[in-house]
Amino acid sequence: MKIFNLFLTLLFALFAIVQLNDPDPWGWTAMYSFVAIVSGFAAFGRYHQYLIYLGIGVVLIWMATLLPDFINWIKIGMPTITGSMKAETKYVELTREFLGLLLCGLALGWHWKGARRAKAIA
Length: 122
Fold this sequence. Notes:
The protein is an all-alpha fold. The chain has one domain. 78% of the residues lie in helices and 0% in strands. The chain contains four helices and no strands. Helix 1 packs antiparallel against helix 2 (25-43) and helix 2 packs parallel to helix 4 (90-121). The protein is elongated. The two termini are 17 Å apart.
């Protein structure tokens, strides 16, 4: 579990760094950095449940704002969102953002489960 949490730390730190050249870097850099930090603490058995809850809450609210656009992307037949790095249409950018938040949510869910397991053992 420690190795996987270290992997998540590195992965989300890299995600945060890549966001620095994005047109709207601050929210994304903060979100990915937050997940990297939570993952780093988890790698050493340090779980901060309230921070995990806060992160999950932010992710869910942010995803809710993007959900209509994600559903619209599905309705139009899920055209490729990987054709180029530049988001040429609105649905490409918003779908990528939704999926990025989904990754954050999955990682934080993993840490929530780890925190519950650690609490049960203690």
